[in-house]
Amino acid sequence: MSLCMLGPTRQCVLGRAASSNTVQFYLANTIMFRNTYDSDNTVFSPQGRLHQVEYALEAVKQGSAAVGLRSKTHAVLLALKRSTGELASYQQKMIRIDDHVGIAIAGLTSDARVLSNFMRQQAMSSRMVFNRPIPVNRLVSTIADKAQVNTQEYGRRPYGVGFLVIGQDHTGPHLYEFSPSGTSFEYYAISIGARSQSAKTYLEKHYEEFAESSLEDLIRHGLHALRETLQQDKELTINNTSIGILGPKGEHEKGVTSEGSFRILEGEPIDVYLKTMEPKVTAESASAPAPSSGDEDVQMAE
Fold it and tell me: Which CATH superfamily is 55-278 part of?
């Protein structure tokens, strides 16, 4: 018996059932195929994607934010530290690799420790074999090559951490981003980690000012960008903020050599930079009416 002989009500019910079964079949197949293609990092999905690599990139996005920016004389890293509880200390977000290289991390700290040790070995090897600091672009390319192997060989997993790398050579300061996918790019300013898009928006608006900025102005811009990644009820403090500097001595620094090797500021030394920040302009304060100047005529109530 055909559907047209069953009447409009029966036909409608069967039509909905058939449509529902089709949707369920499609969803089941989608989940099945995704589970099939994300079980190993060496298998491409039909859309040409490596899901394991995308999951590693997602791990970087879940990490606390880090911001990097550079001028003609300095390169600066700023990072937001997290604490697992009231009784725990804040996690380490910056690592010194060599006198001329430092990194900020976002993602799995354990993976960062392994990669940073590898970078230190490369830097030490360059000084012992060639008697010179390792070029920054070569160091970044080396860890990118190491990460790429884990996206192509069976039985490995991609590193779940991203780096911002600042370094200095005879051409000046440099800023690189390293990704678990095995890619690296040089930037004028960049942000990675949770809610990093808000920081990128600030950096894109002001990046033209960075080239000629002093160290103090560069740090202030970095703090403003880092503040954009915070939740509304949070503020930057000397406890949850780290600053990494590469370049000549700043106005508020003491005991820094003329070469300006990489140094990490935490705790009380950061307070002087936090005080230079401008108050955050919220939507409510921006829309608030301006106070009267006092020169206007006063209307007396009758």
Answer: Aminohydrolase, N-terminal nucleophile (Ntn) domain (3.60.20.10)
